Amino acid sequence: MVSARPAVQALPAYKPGRNPADLARELGVERAVKLASNEVPFPPLPAVVQALAATAGETHRYPDNGAAVLTAALAERYGVAPEQVVPGCGAVMLCQQLAQSFNDPGTGLAFAWRSFEMYPLLAQVAGARSTQVPLVPSTPGGAPDTHDLDALAAAVDDTTRLVFVCNPNNPTGTAVRRAALERFLDRVPATALVVLDEAYREFVTDPDVPDGLELMRGRPNVAVLRTFSKAWGLAGLRVGYLVTEHPAVADAVRRTHVPFSVSSLAQAAAVAALASADEVARRVTAVVTERDRLTAALRERGLEVPDSQANFVWLPLGEASAPTAAALEARGVITRPFAGEGIRVTVGTPEEDDVFLSALDAVLDAARDDVRTGTPVA
Ligand SMILES: Cc1ncc(COP(=O)(O)O)c(C=O)c1O
Predict the structure, then answer these.
(1) Of the residues 92, 226, 308, 311, which should be mutated to test ligand 1's pocket, given the most ligand atoms within 8 Å of the CB?
(2) Ligand 1 pocket check: which of 170, 174, 308 to mutate, most ligand atoms within 8 Å of Cβ?
(3) How far, in Å, CA of 174 to CA of 63, rounded?
(4) Do 179 and 234 fall into the same domain?
């Protein structure tokens, strides 16, 4: 019998979120609402659909392995050289390439926790030492929800090769500010690459939350990771990119690229999306307006909700998180629970969010009734 590497056997099995069509069928309702994966609620951009149709006739050929047109478009948009840009098969694949390119077994990979769930898995597969620095409350007496950059800097040593700072942080939505991040970058040794994971950058409205690409300038050990999956609406096509200050960092990441893993459809769609930046900005504004309405509605219900700079909100419900998410699902609303910690709710359309709020009211009412009648809450 073959046996997988112990590190791989120890990986948690992938648990996909519920499919809304399956859930609707199971519940016998017309439609279930999925607010679990931080996609935007809009259909693909018209220019993207056109680009996909135009590219379909070329899919008998391999894609351009270097994604030259997309790389040039990104370099122009951000005022960097093409040598500083690495497109990848989703930001998640670039995370994996970063660990493969920089982490020998036994070296350190540091990040805050709770954060993007891929980070500890990358370390495990690479045989790296995972250093997880607990989040701290962003408001006095609140639940832990934001980076502790001083503690993260203190945890980085000369064996650390890679540090992820997820800003805004998934799943809590909080963001670190300019002064704190600059102080942090000044403290990290030059031998550790700091990756500012800005998957949700486009949704940031606080002017004091820095653009990683500006902070990166003049810091050769800093890189910025972004994706077309969120604001740009291309989650199903798998395309993200890394921008590095030092071209040698980009070169190292390119060496672990899985050949042809960014499809020609993904490349063409990303180029078309970049050319529709105005339309994307209008969509982002709509998401941000709805995020603020959803946050206010949740706070009116007496719930603690940290200020989100992303396209999702965080409900730190502690032990009630998993049962609450299960009860919401029984009412046709799929969210993303983190057992014992909180629930992440993606900002949907106003209609979807109203369905969520009504379901939540019903769940909270039932929980209050249970408390009144002494029924133990599941
Ligand atoms: C913080 C963060 N980084 C990276 C990713 C990966 O994005 P993708 O692989 O879809 O580009 C995600 C996706 O949820 C994310 O939340």
Answers:
(1) 92
(2) 170
(3) 37
(4) yes
Choosing from 246, 275, 304, the residue where a domain stops is 275
Q: Which atom of ligand 1 is nearest to the CA of 166?
A: 1
Q: Tell me how far the alpha carbon of residue 37 lies from the centroid of ligand 1, in angstroms.
A: 10
Same domain, 292 and 311: yes
Do the beta carbons of residue 171 and residue 335 sit within 8 Å?
no
Given a cut of 70, the residues of the chain with pLDDT beneath it are 371-372, 374-378
How far, in Å, are 100, 181, 223, 319 from residue 187 at the CA level?
24, 10, 16, 36
CA–CA separation, 94 and 77 (whole Å)? 20
| Amino acid, single-letter form, for residue 291 | R
Backbone angles phi, psi at 295, to 5 degrees: -60, -45
Query: Which residue of 98, 118, 147, 227 sits with most ligand 1 atoms within 8 Å of its CB, as the best mutation to test the pocket?
Result: 227
pTM of this structure: 0.96
Q: What secondary structure letter does DSSP report for 203?
A: G
Same domain, 100 and 220: yes
Residues 27, 57, single domain; the answer is: no
- Which residues line the pocket of ligand 1, CB cutoff 6 A? 38, 90-92, 116, 166, 170, 197, 199, 227, 229, 235, 240
pLDDT in tens, 349-367: 999 999 999 999 999 998 8
5 contacts: CB under 8 Å, gap ≥ 6:
none
Give residue 50 CA to ligand 1 midpoint distance, Å.
25
Q: What is the pLDDT of residue 328?
A: 98
What is the CATH number for 322? 3.90.1150.10
Which residues constitute the domain of residue 250?
48-275
pLDDT tens for 2-38 read 999 999 999 998 777 789 999 999 999 999 999 999 9
Q: How far is the CA of 374 from the centre of ligand 1 (A)?
A: 42
Provide the token pair at 374: 């002494």
**Final residue in a domain of this structure, among 254, 275, 296:** 275
